[in-house]
Structure formats: structure tokens, C-alpha cells
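Before our next group meeting I need something from you. Please put the record directly below this note.
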Amino acid sequence: MVRAGLTTERLVRAGAELADEVGFDQVTVSALARRFDVKTASLYSHLKSSQDLKTRIALLALAELADRAAEALAGRAGKDALVAFADVYRDYALAHPGRYTAARYPLDPETAAASAGVRHAQLTRAILRGYDLAEPDQTHAVRLLGSVFHGYVSLEAAGGFSHSAPPLL
């Protein structure tokens, strides 16, 4: 019998919290069952597998990040939009390290196409409109910015800036 109050959404949110606490790689259906003090088998009516749980956490993280980015970009353009976008990525990664890692989880093409990851690219393209880039340069710029933001966040998380002045972002 499934314990009352357990829903897929509640389990995914709890999985995201667990990811922030112990790391995304440590999130499993078994670990989540321990958190709720239920048998692992009771969660399989809501989740197919640990991979399903991780995919759902990734989708949640992508949506949260896209929502924050959209809010931060509203009414901004050019450099102000670019800095706001970078700040969102950094702030999210600092506040939710496990979820941030989850946002990089490989998704199958169909799931990725329906995810908020598409919104991230659209938001980045909106920032780049003011730079008058034609294709394929715009696509390359979207990838470059994503790489720069992720690289910065990853270096900072690994202590890569501990030897220098505080980060400017």
C-alpha cells in the first residue's frame, strides 16, 4: 500500500532537495524511500526507476532555472541582460548545487525537445538579438555563452577562484 500523501511531484521535489544535500549522483529511489521511511517498492507506483527520478529532477531544475532567467531578463537588454542571465546561473548553482548538476543530466532527444532547455536557448537568443548575429553565428554564440556560464560556475564550485580576488559576477 502506498503511504498517503506521496505523489510523483512530492517525490521529485524531495529528490531535488536530496540532490542539493548529498549530490545529484547520490540520488536513487532507495535513498528517497529512506527519506520518507517507506519501502523502496512503494515508490515504484510513482517512479519507474532511479533514472526516471533523475530525469524528472533534471526537468524540474531546467524549468526552475528558465523561470528565474525569464524573470531576470524582463525589461533588460544588451549587457544588462547578459549580466542578469549570468547572475541567475551562478545564484542557482550556489543555492541548488544538486539541481544545477541535474540540469546537465543527459536527456533523450524527445524529452529534451519538450523540456525547459529549449526556453534557455530562446532566452539566450533574445539576449543576442541586439548583437545582430546571423546563423550559424547565433547558434555558436548561444553555445559559447552556455559554456562560459557553466565553466565559471564549475570552476567556482571547485574552489578555482579561492586564490584570487572575489568573483565579479
